[in-house]
# Entry
Amino acid sequence: MCINYFVRSRPLSLYLILFILVYFSLTLASKHVFSQDTKISQITLLVDNIQRSIEFYQRLGLSISYRKKSSISDDKDSFGYEKYPLTSDPKTEYYTIMSDGSKEGTNIALLAYEKPPLANARGNLMGLGVGDFILLIKTKDINFLYNRMDEFGARFYSRLQKSNTHNQLESETIYNFIVYDPDGHLVEVISIINN
# Structure
Protein backbone atom coordinates (compact mmCIF):
# COMPACT_ATOMS: atom_id res chain seq x y z
CA MET A 1 0.00 0.00 0.00
CA CYS A 2 2.86 2.34 0.66
CA ILE A 3 4.26 1.70 -2.82
CA ASN A 4 0.84 2.23 -4.36
CA TYR A 5 0.46 5.59 -2.56
CA PHE A 6 3.90 6.74 -3.70
CA VAL A 7 3.15 5.82 -7.33
CA ARG A 8 -0.24 7.55 -7.29
CA SER A 9 1.01 10.72 -5.60
CA ARG A 10 4.11 11.05 -7.74
CA PRO A 11 2.39 12.32 -10.90
CA LEU A 12 0.57 14.98 -8.87
CA SER A 13 3.84 16.11 -7.30
CA LEU A 14 5.56 16.04 -10.65
CA TYR A 15 2.81 18.19 -12.20
CA LEU A 16 3.02 20.62 -9.29
CA ILE A 17 6.80 20.89 -9.65
CA LEU A 18 6.50 21.33 -13.42
CA PHE A 19 3.85 23.99 -12.94
CA ILE A 20 6.06 25.89 -10.48
CA LEU A 21 9.07 25.67 -12.80
CA VAL A 22 7.09 26.85 -15.82
CA TYR A 23 5.47 29.65 -13.83
CA PHE A 24 8.78 30.99 -12.52
CA SER A 25 10.53 30.64 -15.86
CA LEU A 26 7.72 32.57 -17.57
CA THR A 27 7.75 35.18 -14.84
CA LEU A 28 11.50 35.65 -15.17
CA ALA A 29 11.26 35.71 -18.97
CA SER A 30 8.53 38.34 -18.93
CA LYS A 31 10.53 40.50 -16.53
CA HIS A 32 13.52 40.22 -18.82
CA VAL A 33 11.50 41.12 -21.91
CA PHE A 34 9.71 44.07 -20.34
CA SER A 35 12.56 45.48 -18.26
CA GLN A 36 14.73 46.44 -21.20
CA ASP A 37 16.00 49.98 -21.14
CA THR A 38 13.85 51.17 -24.04
CA LYS A 39 13.02 54.86 -24.14
CA ILE A 40 11.68 57.19 -26.79
CA SER A 41 14.49 59.60 -27.50
CA GLN A 42 12.96 61.71 -30.23
CA ILE A 43 9.81 62.38 -32.20
CA THR A 44 10.37 63.79 -35.70
CA LEU A 45 7.71 66.01 -37.23
CA LEU A 46 7.71 66.76 -40.95
CA VAL A 47 6.77 70.44 -41.17
CA ASP A 48 5.98 72.89 -43.94
CA ASN A 49 7.60 76.08 -42.60
CA ILE A 50 10.61 75.37 -40.36
CA GLN A 51 10.84 78.87 -38.87
CA ARG A 52 7.14 79.06 -37.97
CA SER A 53 7.34 75.61 -36.33
CA ILE A 54 10.47 76.59 -34.38
CA GLU A 55 8.70 79.72 -33.07
CA PHE A 56 5.63 77.66 -32.09
CA TYR A 57 7.61 75.11 -30.06
CA GLN A 58 9.82 77.80 -28.52
CA ARG A 59 6.65 79.45 -27.18
CA LEU A 60 5.82 76.12 -25.54
CA GLY A 61 9.15 76.29 -23.68
CA LEU A 62 11.41 74.18 -25.91
CA SER A 63 14.75 75.46 -27.16
CA ILE A 64 16.93 74.67 -30.15
CA SER A 65 19.62 72.14 -29.28
CA TYR A 66 20.76 71.34 -32.84
CA ARG A 67 20.16 72.92 -36.24
CA LYS A 68 21.31 71.99 -39.72
CA LYS A 69 20.53 73.01 -43.29
CA SER A 70 21.78 70.80 -46.09
CA SER A 71 21.55 70.55 -49.81
CA ILE A 72 20.11 67.27 -51.05
CA SER A 73 22.84 67.12 -53.71
CA ASP A 74 25.25 66.47 -50.81
CA ASP A 75 23.79 63.03 -50.07
CA LYS A 76 26.16 62.51 -47.14
CA ASP A 77 24.80 65.58 -45.32
CA SER A 78 21.13 64.76 -45.75
CA PHE A 79 19.29 63.58 -42.63
CA GLY A 80 16.28 61.80 -44.07
CA TYR A 81 16.20 62.19 -47.84
CA GLU A 82 17.48 58.70 -48.59
CA LYS A 83 15.80 57.15 -45.52
CA TYR A 84 12.18 58.22 -45.84
CA PRO A 85 9.54 57.85 -48.58
CA LEU A 86 9.05 61.55 -49.43
CA THR A 87 6.16 62.84 -51.56
CA SER A 88 8.42 65.01 -53.74
CA ASP A 89 12.04 65.34 -54.81
CA PRO A 90 13.23 68.36 -52.77
CA LYS A 91 16.55 70.18 -53.10
CA THR A 92 17.00 71.59 -49.57
CA GLU A 93 16.54 70.01 -46.14
CA TYR A 94 16.17 71.77 -42.76
CA TYR A 95 16.63 69.78 -39.58
CA THR A 96 16.18 71.25 -36.08
CA ILE A 97 16.05 69.47 -32.72
CA MET A 98 13.96 71.12 -30.01
CA SER A 99 14.62 70.11 -26.41
CA ASP A 100 13.12 70.83 -23.00
CA GLY A 101 16.61 70.87 -21.49
CA SER A 102 16.00 68.06 -19.00
CA LYS A 103 17.97 64.83 -18.84
CA GLU A 104 14.88 62.64 -19.22
CA GLY A 105 13.09 64.80 -21.81
CA THR A 106 12.14 63.60 -25.25
CA ASN A 107 13.39 65.69 -28.15
CA ILE A 108 11.17 66.93 -30.93
CA ALA A 109 12.92 67.10 -34.29
CA LEU A 110 11.51 69.36 -36.97
CA LEU A 111 12.28 68.29 -40.53
CA ALA A 112 11.36 70.44 -43.54
CA TYR A 113 12.07 70.21 -47.24
CA GLU A 114 11.73 72.83 -49.93
CA LYS A 115 12.04 73.37 -53.67
CA PRO A 116 9.59 71.70 -54.10
CA PRO A 117 8.01 71.33 -50.65
CA LEU A 118 6.50 68.03 -49.56
CA ALA A 119 2.81 67.48 -50.20
CA ASN A 120 0.55 67.37 -47.14
CA ALA A 121 -0.14 63.70 -46.43
CA ARG A 122 -3.17 64.58 -44.29
CA GLY A 123 -5.21 66.03 -47.15
CA ASN A 124 -8.12 68.17 -45.99
CA LEU A 125 -8.89 66.23 -42.81
CA MET A 126 -10.39 68.36 -40.07
CA GLY A 127 -10.62 65.56 -37.51
CA LEU A 128 -8.11 62.97 -36.37
CA GLY A 129 -7.58 59.75 -38.21
CA VAL A 130 -5.22 56.80 -38.40
CA GLY A 131 -1.63 58.00 -38.66
CA ASP A 132 -2.22 61.19 -36.68
CA PHE A 133 -0.81 61.71 -33.22
CA ILE A 134 -1.30 63.96 -30.21
CA LEU A 135 1.80 65.44 -28.62
CA LEU A 136 1.49 65.91 -24.84
CA ILE A 137 3.50 68.61 -23.06
CA LYS A 138 3.47 68.93 -19.28
CA THR A 139 4.19 72.28 -17.64
CA LYS A 140 4.05 73.94 -14.24
CA ASP A 141 2.84 77.33 -15.57
CA ILE A 142 0.00 76.58 -17.97
CA ASN A 143 -1.34 80.15 -17.90
CA PHE A 144 1.98 81.47 -19.21
CA LEU A 145 2.07 78.98 -22.11
CA TYR A 146 -1.59 79.53 -22.90
CA ASN A 147 -1.05 83.29 -23.17
CA ARG A 148 2.03 82.76 -25.37
CA MET A 149 0.05 80.54 -27.72
CA ASP A 150 -2.76 83.10 -27.85
CA GLU A 151 -0.26 85.89 -28.66
CA PHE A 152 1.27 83.68 -31.35
CA GLY A 153 -2.14 83.45 -32.99
CA ALA A 154 -2.28 79.68 -32.62
CA ARG A 155 -5.48 77.88 -33.52
CA PHE A 156 -6.99 76.27 -30.43
CA TYR A 157 -9.07 73.11 -30.43
CA SER A 158 -9.99 73.74 -26.79
CA ARG A 159 -9.21 76.71 -24.61
CA LEU A 160 -7.70 76.55 -21.13
CA GLN A 161 -9.99 74.57 -18.84
CA LYS A 162 -10.11 72.32 -15.83
CA SER A 163 -9.76 68.78 -17.14
CA ASN A 164 -12.51 66.25 -16.53
CA THR A 165 -10.35 63.18 -16.03
CA HIS A 166 -11.67 60.31 -13.95
CA ASN A 167 -8.28 58.93 -12.87
CA GLN A 168 -6.98 61.97 -11.06
CA LEU A 169 -6.26 61.98 -7.36
CA GLU A 170 -8.48 64.08 -5.12
CA SER A 171 -5.44 66.12 -4.10
CA GLU A 172 -4.66 67.09 -7.72
CA THR A 173 -6.37 69.37 -10.20
CA ILE A 174 -5.48 69.07 -13.88
CA TYR A 175 -5.78 71.95 -16.33
CA ASN A 176 -5.29 71.63 -20.05
CA PHE A 177 -5.66 73.22 -23.44
CA ILE A 178 -5.31 71.72 -26.90
CA VAL A 179 -3.76 73.66 -29.75
CA TYR A 180 -2.84 72.92 -33.37
CA ASP A 181 0.78 73.42 -34.39
CA PRO A 182 1.41 75.21 -37.72
CA ASP A 183 1.07 71.91 -39.63
CA GLY A 184 -2.15 70.77 -37.95
CA HIS A 185 -0.69 68.37 -35.37
CA LEU A 186 -2.58 68.42 -32.08
CA VAL A 187 -0.59 69.46 -29.03
CA GLU A 188 -2.16 69.02 -25.60
CA VAL A 189 -0.64 71.06 -22.80
CA ILE A 190 -1.40 69.96 -19.23
CA SER A 191 -0.58 71.19 -15.76
CA ILE A 192 -1.12 69.17 -12.60
CA ILE A 193 -1.66 71.33 -9.54
CA ASN A 194 -1.42 69.78 -6.08
CA ASN A 195 -4.18 71.09 -3.82
About this structure: Residues 1-10 have pLDDT under 50 and may be disordered. The beta strands are 42-46, 63-71, 92-99, 107-114, 134-138, 155-162, 172-180, 186-194. The CA atoms of residues 13 and 43 lie 53 Å apart.
